[in-house]
Design brief:
Helix content: 25-40%
Number of domains: 3
Number of helices: 11
Distance between the termini: 30 Å
Order of helices and strands: EHHEEHHHEEEEHEHEEEEHEEHEEEEHHE
Length: 485
């Protein structure tokens, strides 16, 4: 499994990201061909070596005729559909544009399709976003980790006038993304850069344990006096990809209703929990109670603890760090008579001896097919399972598979061969494109248990409808601020 770590010491922009990926080994000629298939007139990508504070880096210049076109999201999506991009490249770029569109719509109080993509709809930004998607696929990156990003300070000029840094759409995009204080008066994180972080990054934090194989340096267009204006990308493979660390949060509750508990569990899932479960317990004075347990990634601990305090009324939360061993798994899409269904495939490790892959159809897909076509859930489940087993027979276990989080954003694009459709009286063939749905207080009784093996199966939930926007600002420099797209 290839991991990319984004070192955003000097912020992040679309052109810096693409330049860093090419510097790390992505095929520049292939990227340019894929970008040109969008139908943009006379577009060329020019990569050149430059220096920032005596450090070598690669710079990207997008060469194209001047244009004054304001595109809508539907225009950009149509452009992607007409292109020769692969399904994964097209899907990744589309998610970024939709996230940008939703953020822009939110800050302007309108709907996503009414948004005029000003700077973001410009050629430079389209090239940056599509180029990054193509480069990530070309390098076969399966997981992205990033450091906290600085936004910079001061003001910046955009199509709507002068605004504070971070620009409104950038700030909207950075909701949930760790940022850090920085006194540099410049726009260090642009809307395109923020959208890349918000859409594609699986985890924020320090450099993960990995064997570094490639390093790329992407230069911003401004040479800042304070530090090198460079985005560094480190690409490598994990040292122990079938193990990771999780945090288990627990609290005892004896004064919460079933409805309140159910609502709290829903909010925990939405806040990024890997698993949530309850256990019936007895407390002092023989009171029956409920033990609520939450399994989470360490970087999500703070917001999940806040969620527990808010919705469970708990006065304290126990926190335990555990080591977890996992099977390699992926999400496989298979064709059925009702449409495409997702199945989870777990590949046994060598130490378990000769075993067949473990296949589990996605419940939500099966449920939708059963409801839409008046079939029994059992029948739909069996048909999807047979289609998945037939597809898996043609696949070899891969060692370079994402082990989380679910199918965002690197869900496998592999599809199994379509099985012969089962007999059906009404002969309908409806196909549905289905989307997956899915630090503050003092904490008592803190326990940090290391080398503990957690054998809970986890479900990487939840849909990622990337409906959020931006406007990328090009060639607007206010009072010397570094504004990169």
């Amino acid at each position: 499994m290839a991991i990319a770590y984004l070192d955003t010491l000097s912020g992040i922009a679309g052109d810096m990201t693409l330049a860093a990926l090419v510097d790390a080994g992505a095929d520049a000629n292939y990227i340019e061909r894929q970008v040109q298939s969008l139908g943009l007139e006379n577009v060329r990508l020019q990569f050149s070596t430059t220096r920032r504070h005596d450090f070598r880096a690669l710079r990207l210049d997008v060469l194209h005729p001047a244009e004054h076109v304001h595109r809508h999201l539907s225009d950009i999506e149509a452009m992607l559909e007409r292109s020769q991009l692969t399904a994964r490249e097209r899907g990744m770029a589309g998610r970024i544009f939709r996230r940008l569109g939703a953020a822009e719509a939110h800050v302007h109080g309108t709907d996503i399709e009414s948004v005029h993509f000003h700077e973001v709809g410009a050629v430079d930004s389209i090239v940056d976003i599509v180029g990054v998607a193509v480069a990530l696929c070309n390098l076969e990156i399966q997981r992205i980790v990033a450091s906290a990003t600085p936004t910079g300070t001061g003001t910046v000029k955009i199509a709507h006038g002068t605004v504070s840094v971070p620009a409104p759409a950038t700030a909207e995009l950075l909701k949930g993304v760790p940022i850090r204080a920085c006194g540099i008066e410049a726009e260090l994180t642009t809307p395109t850069g923020a959208a890349i972080l918000a859409t594609l990054v699986d985890q924020f934090g320090p450099l993960p344990s990995m064997q570094i194989n490639r390093i790329g340096y992407g230069a911003g267009h401004r040479d800042m006096p304070e530090q090198a204006n460079i985005l560094r990308i480190l690409i490598g493979s994990p040292l122990d990809e079938d193990r990771d660390d999780v945090v288990v949060l627990e609290c005892n509750m004896d004064d919460i209703t079933g409805e309140q508990l159910g609502f709290a569990i829903e909010q925990l899932w939405k806040s990024g929990a890997l698993d949530v479960f309850t256990t019936a317990i007895g407390m002092k004075k023989n009171r029956p109670a409920t033990l609520l347990s939450v399994i989470a990634r360490p970087e999500h601990r703070g917001r999940l603890e806040d969620c527990l305090f808010t919705h469970c009324g708990s006065l304290g939360i126990r926190r335990t760090r555990m080591s977890r061993r996992k099977l390699h798994r992926e999400v496989l899409r298979v064709d059925t008579r009702w449409g495409v269904a997702r199945v989870k495939v777990a590949w046994p490790t060598d130490g378990l001896g000769p075993q067949s892959p473990r296949v589990s159809p996605e419940y939500e897909d099966c449920r939708q097919f059963a409801e839409s076509h008046q079939e029994s859930l059992e029948h739909v489940f069996q048909v999807v399972l047979e289609a998945a087993q037939q597809a898996v027979e043609d696949l070899q276990p891969l060692q370079n598979l994402p082990t989380g989080p679910g199918d965002r954003p690197f869900e496998s694009d592999r599809r199994g061969p379509p099985p012969p459709p089962p007999p059906r009286p009404n002969g309908s063939h409806d196909h549905h494109d289905h989307h997956d749905h899915h630090d503050h207080h003092d904490h008592h009784d803190h326990h940090d248990h290391h080398d503990h093996h957690d054998h809970h199966d986890h479900h990487d939930h939840h849909d990622h409808h990337d409906h959020h926007d931006h406007h990328d600002h090009h060639d607007h420099h206010d009072s010397g601020h570094d504004h990169h797209r």
